[in-house]
Amino acid sequence: MLNQIFDNLLLLGLAQAAAATVLALIVVLFSRFERIHLERETLVALARGFVQVIAVGSVLLLLLKGPTWTSIFVLAAMVVAAATISARRTPGIPGAFRVSLQGIGLGAGLVISSMTLLGVIEAEITALVPVGSMIIAAAMRGNALALERFRAEVTAHTGQIEAALALGADPNTTVRTYVQTAIQASLIPSIDSLRSLGIVWIPGMMSGMILSGSDPIYAAIYQFVIIAMIFAATGLTAVPSVLMIRTWIFTPAQQLRLRPSDTSD
Amino acid sequence: MTLSHDPHLDNKEFILSARNLSREVDGKLLVDNISLDVRTGSIIAIVGPSGAGKSSFLRLLNRLDEPTQGTVFLDGQDYRTLPPTALRRRVGMLMQAPYLFAGTVAQNIRFGPQQQGKTLSTKDIEDLLDKVGLAGFSERDINNLSGGEAQRVSLARTLANKPQVLLLDEPTSALDEASKRDVETLVAEIVAQDALTCLLVTHDVGQAKRLAGHVMVMKSGHQTAVGPVKEVLGA
Prior knowledge:
The structure holds two protein chains of two kinds. Chain A has eleven helices and no strands. Chain A is mostly helical. In chain A, helix 5 packs antiparallel against helix 11 and helix 6 (125-156) packs across helix 11. Chain B has a single domain (14-224), classed as Rossmann fold, CATH 3.40.50.300. Chain B is 33% helix and 27% strand. In chain B, the strands form two sheets. In chain B, strands 6-7-8-3-9-10 form a six-stranded mixed beta sheet, with helices on both faces. A four-stranded antiparallel beta sheet of chain B has the order 2-1-4-5, with helices on one face. Chain A binds chain B through residues 159-160, 162-170, 173, 251, 253-256, 262-265, and chain B through 25-26, 28, 30, 50-56, 59, 62-66, 80, 84-86, 88-89, 92-93, 95, 97, 99, 101, 111-112, 115-116, 154, 157-158, 161.
C-alpha cells in the first residue's frame, strides 16, 4: 500500500520506518498499561538505532563507490572495534584487548581471506564489507562468550586450580577443563544456528537475497555458506583467544593471577 | 629453630629457611619481613588472629604467591632457582578446604604422581588410604564423602607426592569438632611416622599446643614471637 502512495524511494523508506515504529510504540503503550516503564529507554533506543543505521548507510554509500582495497581498512577498523567491545565484557582479565584483537583478527581474517581467495566471497567492496562484517561480528560474539566463560570458570574454581598447582601440576593442566568448557560455550550459539537453519528461522541474508530477486535455492545455499563461515570464524577466534588468555592468567612463576580477591589471613 | 641470623644453609639441620619474606598487595603489607628457620622433622605452628597474615605467609613458602621481598631456601637452595612444579612437589600443602577434583578418590590420589609421569599402583593407593583411615574408599565418588573424609583424601593426595615439607593451612577449620580431632590425630601420627617437617597454620592455640613443638605468633603481618610452644604459649 505504501509503495502505491510514494514514488520516491527515500520517502517510501521513511514511511516504512514510521509504520514499523508505530508497532514498536504499541509495545511501549502496552508496557505502560502494565506499569512496566520502558518508554524513555525504548524511545532513545529507537531514535539511536535509526540515526546509527542511517549513518552507517551513508558511510557505506560513500565506501561502496570506492576501490576494493579500501575494504581492507574498513574491515580492520571493524576488527579493532570488535576487540574493544569484546574486551569490555571481560574487565577482570589482564590483556583482554590485545588477546581479543589477535583472536578476532586471526579467526575472522583467516575466514574472510581464504573465502575471498576461493571466490566464495566476491572480491568486491559491496560483498566484502557486509559479509565480512557478519563474520567479524560472529567472531566478536564467540570471543566475548569464550573469554567471559573462561574467566567465570577460573574464578569459580580458584581452589581446585591452586590445589592442582600445589600438587606440582603445570598451569595448563590445572585449567584444561575450563578451556574446553569456554570453547564449547562459544560454539553453542553457532551450532544451534546451523541446527535450526530453515526450520526455526530464515536468516536475514537469505531473506534479503530472495526479496531482491535471487534464486531461492541459491539464496538458501549461500545462507548455509554464511552460517558455516560464521561457525568457522567463531571457533578460529575462540580457540586462540582462550589459549592466549590461559598464559596471561598465570605469572612466570606459575602463580594464578586471576583470583576473586587476595587473601589477607 | 633460630632467628635473625644467617641460616646455616649448608647445614642439613634446617630444611627450610625463610629470609626477610614480605608480600605487599595494593599497598597493604600482608607479610612483613619475616625470617624463620625450620629444623628437619620439626612441627611449627603459626598462630595469630584473623587477618594476621598466617595463610599469606604459608602461601609464600611453596611459592603459590610471589614474595615482594626476600626468599626461601629449601635444603640450602634458593627456591627461585627451582622449577615451581618441582618445588611444590617437595613442599606439599593441605588447604583449608579439600578442593577435590571431580571423579573418584583414586583419581584424586593419582593426580600428583601423574604430573611427573608416574602411575600409582592399586596397592600404593590402598596403602595411602589405609594411612589416612579410609581403607576401601578408592573407587568412591568424591561427592559421596563427608567433610572429614574429603579432608583425609586431600591429605592422602598430598602425601602421594612424598613431600619433604608439609604445609597445613587450617586443615580442620571447616570440620565439626569430632572430625577435627580425628584429622588432628591423623596428622600427628603421619608426621611422626614419615618424619615429615610440618608448618601448621591455626587460630586454635589448643591445637598448636597439641601438635607443635615450636610456634611463631603473627599479628598484622609481623612476627611477634617465636620459640618453643611452652615458652611462647605457656603450658
